[in-house]
Amino acid sequence: MAKNKPHLNLVFVGHVDHGKSTTVGRLLYDAGVIDEQSMRKLKEKAEELGKGGFEFAFVMDNLKEERERGVTIDLAHKKFTTPKFDFTIIDAPGHKDFIKNMITGASQADAAVVVVSCAEGVMAQTKEHIFLSRTLGVEQIIVAVNKMDVKNYDQKAFEKVKEQVSLLLKSVGFKPEQIPFVPMASLYGDNVVKKSDKLSWFTGGTLLEHLDFLKVPEKPTDLPLRLPIQDVYNITGIGVVPVGRVETGIMKVGDKVIVVPGREGKGVNGEVKSIEMHHEQLQEAEPGDNIGFNLRGIGKTDITRGDVLGKPDSPPTVATEFTAQIVVLNHPSVITVGYTPVFHIHTAQIACQVTAILKKLNPATGETLAENPDFIKNGDAAILKIKPIQPLVIERKKEIPQLSRFAVRDSGQTVAAGMCIDLVKKAM
């Protein structure tokens, strides 16, 4: 069996109508993932709906409603292989109504392609998506300056957008000099997969080539073991089989483990009998592995989705309260002390109450704008004190960042996203 290439999750973000879906469609088509015949059908469909030129976007936007409205609503996942990597491409919605899906996408991503139209430059959601990508821990970014055709492939127009985006990147803590900027015209395929003589002034390679310059994210194997439980099955003849993804550390057959909070909130101890991934038995699992495993000493009702597995010498942290830095994205009115929405942290979904608003921050720079404000609203960043209604595993960003991030949802939408910066540990 051939050695698997390293796998990366790649999210495409950017302002609505700047050409994200078209870029992804063009990339997949020119790289041969989508055949001629499927493309022809999409083209006919696009013209029939009066959306000529949208055929590449239709590759990802395969929901009927998306086609009719011409916007990406949900996340689409597509596998895609380059000489160096196996990618899962996540085409995230630019439209502000669908920002919650973008958060889900960005929180799973190892790298992001930010698509910015050369015609419009930095827009509201360009800012929001770059900031969110940063908040959600995306370390690697490629900036695709699209629609160069609208500006007649002019180098000055490209430089102008590059300057704007560089300022924005810098303001949220990226180093623009380390970030590639790629001029292209996705609709015509200029510089996406194929070099273009219309961009002969640009010496830096195509978007596809830049994807292979991304770095394999380091696997946090040196951190303590953390595996959030996704589901727990009872399999005849085997017993209790929890499934989940290893976030940090290494899990081996024979390891003594503890799952917290567990049913009683005190943690449950067991031992790893076997580990399986894609129907193959493993001796050990590392970060990024989605596994099923069998535990000795733990019953079906002892543990549940949202519990986290670790080792007894450094068990996952159960917090009675925590301090978080958040950004408010989409709240219908204002957030005040006493607000109790649902926090989505790893696989847990737990109602948590805001007990204090310590500071309001400038979302771009992080500087303090106000101490103890009465409320915060859309677009604000803030530092809050938060109390989970029931025991919850969360870690400090500086200790185990993989278990520090969360999204806040309320009545069907994501209202905020953030990370834990400090916490009060529950006495076990």
Strand content: 25-35%
- Total domains, how many? 3
The beta-strand count equals 23
What kind of sheet is the major sheet? Answer: 6 strands, mixed
Backbone shape: globular
The rounded distance between the terminal residues' Cα atoms is 47 Å
CATH class of the largest domain: Alpha Beta
- Tally of helical runs: 8
Q: Helical amount among residues, as a percent range? A: 10-25%
CATH architecture tag of the largest domain:
3-Layer(aba) Sandwich
Strand arrangement across the biggest beta sheet: 2-3-1-4-5-6
At the third CATH level, what is the topology name of the largest domain?
Rossmann fold
Mean pLDDT: 83
The secondary-structure class comes to: alpha+beta
Q: Unreliable segments (pLDDT under 50, ≥5 consecutive)? A: 61-77, 92-101
Supply the CATH superfamily name of the largest domain. Answer: P-loop containing nucleotide triphosphate hydrolases
Rg from C-alpha positions?
A: 23 Å
How would you describe what is shown here?
The chain has 428 residues and is an alpha+beta fold. The chain has 3 domains: 205 residues, 3-Layer(aba) Sandwich (Rossmann fold), CATH 3.40.50.300; 84 residues, Elongation Factor Tu (Ef-tu), domain 3; 108 residues, Elongation Factor Tu (Ef-tu), domain 3, CATH 2.40.30. It is 18% helix and 34% strand. It contains 8 helices and 23 strands. The strands form 4 sheets. The protein has a 6-stranded mixed beta sheet with strand order 2-3-1-4-5-6, sandwiched between helices. Strands 7-8-14-11-10-15 form a 6-stranded antiparallel beta barrel. It has a 6-stranded antiparallel barrel with strand order 16-20-18-17-22-23. Strand 11 and strand 12 form a beta hairpin. About 6% of the residues have low confidence.
